[in-house]
Amino acid sequence: MEINLYGLWVTWRQMRGGRGYFGITASFAMFGMILGVASLVVAMAVVSGYETTLKKSIVDVVGHVIVSKRGAAIGDVISFTEKIKTVVGSHLKMTPFVVVEAVLARKGQLSGVIVEGVERQTVAEVLKLEKRIIQGKFDLEVIHDIPGVLLGRGLVKRFDLKLGDEFKVVMPQSDPYDATQFRPRVRRFRLTGVLDLGRYDYDNRYIVADLKAAQELAEIGDQVMGVRLRLPEDDQARPVAAKLAEDLGFPYWTRDWTDLNRNLFEAIKWERWIIFLVISVMIIAAAFNVSSTLYFSVLKRFADISVLKTIGASQSFILRLFAQQGLIIGVVGSFLGLLLGLLACYAFSFAQGQWNILPAEVYTLTSIEVEVRGTDVLAVFAASLLICFLSTLAPALRGARLKPVEGLRYE
After folding, report:
1. What is the reported pTM?
2. CA nearest 368: which of 40, 55, 60, 53?
């Protein structure tokens, strides 16, 4: 135990840089380690947050699983939902929906929109629309034959709408006697709430209306276009969708929430590893600085090493002496880098709330939750320590293999 404590004391004396050089270069090496680790923590947190935010924005708006009928609407909704329950059980929540592509018209402005009709009694069990309301309330009541609707905030901003304002939704329909002619169906709606759906495309196209109002706009009577399902866990969506597709068969079409952005989610998984490897180069560069620092330390302390060996210090003691120097730089640099990275993540989250630093038109999402995962932090910390440890081996071995006579020859 005494020799270990003595080794730590000698290590500390060397790192303080009694002769000047090691203290300065060790500080630069540690600074590089801090920047590399902090950059990696921030990058991983942003990627993880992007993935989580994207998943929430999809699941909150479309549910976990969507079941529809190819090329036709579904007539008997009750028997259809009972059929689904016999396949996957009665523990899940379901709500029917109608989707209509139309045009919003107001004061000479036009914009293509998607009107989704939802059943007020069951929609809250499946979709999390109420928590995404930033103005107004979830009110789809019909007053004076004008239904209330919720609009994405992009539409509200584009058409300069206020709560209580009325607007028209136009659905073009071809004339049955002349395919070149159209007879539009027009319905007036009233704005009762503004939604922040988390995605640029949703916020600029999405209108939520009552199921009956959407059915009247589409002229499909009491039929619906599909059913949305909510499951206890997000990961259950794919196997449940596969089972429904197998048991229901044609003409029913089953999709889970990952199908809506499958390529994007796959890209995020690859980008996570690519970012980790690319930014790890900064840590490797800092580790080379640590290695060169230890090499110079060995060269400067040939005489000191020789004296230690002369009084009985073993090769393993000398090896441990220099390895400890590199590991101290790695541990302190990694720890400070983690703290700096966490602080930067907090600053990034704060900046998002104050300024629009991520254009939604480019990044799809209107904002990103910065998510620091424990596994990512451990991976970054372990990788930085491993890289730093490996960088100390060569100079430490050089010092350990020094013969005492070489260091004392010119003393």
Report:
1. 0.73
2. 53
Whether residue 122 is found in the same domain as residue 187: yes
Q: Are strands 178-182 and 174-175 parallel, antiparallel or unpaired?
A: antiparallel
Per-residue pLDDT of the chain (411 residues; tens, 9 = 90+): 344 554 554 555 555 554 444 567 777 778 888 888 898 898 888 888 888 888 888 888 888 999 988 877 888 888 888 888 888 877 788 999 999 999 998 888 889 999 999 998 889 999 999 989 999 999 999 888 899 999 999 899 999 999 989 999 988 776 666 656 667 788 899 999 999 888 888 888 999 999 999 998 888 888 899 899 998 888 888 888 888 888 888 888 898 888 877 777 787 788 888 888 888 887 888 777 777 777 777 767 666 666 666 666 667 777 777 777 777 778 888 899 999 999 998 888 888 767 766 666 655 677 777 888 888 888 888 888 888 888 888 777 776 676 665 555 555
Q: How many domains does the chain have?
A: 2
Q: Helix 2-15 to helix 315-354 angle, to the nearest 10 degrees? A: 60
Residue 365 bridge partners (DSSP): 199
Please provide residue 172's backbone torsions phi and psi, each rounded to the nearest 5 degrees.
-65, 140
Judge if 280 and 384 occupy the same domain: yes
Residues 99 and 170 both lie in one domain: yes
Identify the domain containing residue 393 by its residue range. 2-58+264-408
Judge whether 245 lies within some domain. Answer: no
Tell me: do 102 and 207 sit in the same domain.
yes
DSSP 100-144: EEEEEEETTEEEEEEEEEE-TTTHHHH---GGGEEEE-----EET
Picking from 230, 256, 284, the residue at the C-terminal end of a domain is 230
Whether 318 and 381 map to the same domain: the answer is yes
Q: Quickly count: other Cβ atoms within 10 Å of residue 34's Cβ.
A: 22
Looking at the structure, tell me whether residues 33 and 84 fall in a common domain: no
